[in-house]
């Protein structure tokens, strides 16, 4: 669409043409792009959309990167949204339509029998990656990626021909070029450990960048066949706040760690607003009806109950085993950031034994180090090391009988998978009856509760259980549940 010639079989299009799916020209296309951003968790309001329209009206539409940066300035509020924005921008404003062509097109080397010469291709790729960054080098790498996708990435699916980034790169294996790139980048650089590490990171970054170029080209070609909306649902990086806790990647979990303070501020503001409303007191129905006697039964003068000041206690009991460790660790960090909102916060962790870990949050420590310290400095793992909710609940109630009182709000985190062991329902019932509030946050989908070794439905009969599969869902649930 922008930035160079393109062709589809049998037709030629000028570069500035909009895709056929745009219902109302450029304005309709922009609205569709904004809707796609919203669908991927990026909040874009009417004012930002108007700003984007004004940006489009004054920019040179033939300069694709200028359009990208202009729309990013108008539509984005946080830098963490940029990766998702770029993925959707490449789908809604593609660099070309169909197979890319160009005057300086890079040709893939082939053997006399017509097959791709993998060794020569690796050599060509290594030379381009080692070269100093420039506009010409970037264009050549993009052309090489396009040629590789076209000639090496095609396969036939159930719905017809398609393209695959894995199919494109499986024989080339660009990661094998890191040593060659390292030798080229290290030339003329000092031989110290620092210089070697800088060259090593630069080599890996360039290989990763080329892999991303191939993946972007693959998404563009597939989107032309099955539709960009469908590709956007699985081919564009999601916001870390929308990532499923049970399938979250290391990069997404790291992003959540960085955003924990921001989410904590959001929750703190919600709690403060609820606390301000609570200070007014609830309507006292009996007093209001008595006052209405002087107005013929019409409740004109409302009477309110006196608010009860004082901040409650909060106790977290968290399963940190297996795949739920990321969910529990992030929630512990999030709630610890809200410590000033409560009179006291106590945090307990368990696998098959419970132990208090509150003291580990007293210092400013990265989340991954907190998790590591829980396993090395506390006694949360017994002999077997498998999740045992029954043993953990009974041990918690026995060793810390004063932790849960009538002023305590108990928050349990875990998937309730007991490995077919005794769930200790009576112990949980005693804790729930003692606590002022008791809630259970489960990172599994509700449809999976009660399947296999899950005792979620049995626990849900005693304690209110809520599905919390992502940070966004967790923030909404916790913001409504935390006591004031």
In short:
This protein is α/β, with parallel strands linked by helices. It is built from 18 helices and 11 strands. Helix 9 runs antiparallel to helix 10.
Provide an overview of this structure:
The protein has 484 residues and is an alpha/beta fold. It is 49% helix and 10% strand. It has 18 helices and eleven strands. It has helices at 25-39, 46-58, 64-75, 82-92, 118-130, 135-152, 165-169, 178-186, 193-226, 228-235, 250-279, 285-291, 325-336, 367-377, 389-399, 425-434, 456-460, 471-481; strands at 6-8, 11-12, 99-100, 154-157, 160-163, 313-319, 344-350, 354-356, 408-413, 437-442, 464-467. It has a six-stranded mixed β-sheet, with helices on both faces. The protein has a three-stranded antiparallel β-sheet with strand order 2-1-3. Strands 4-5 form a two-stranded antiparallel ribbon. Helix 16 links the parallel strand 9 (408-413) and strand 10. Helix 1 (25-39) runs antiparallel to helix 4 and helix 9 packs antiparallel against helix 10. It is globular. The two termini are 54 Å apart. Residues 1-22 have low confidence and may be disordered.
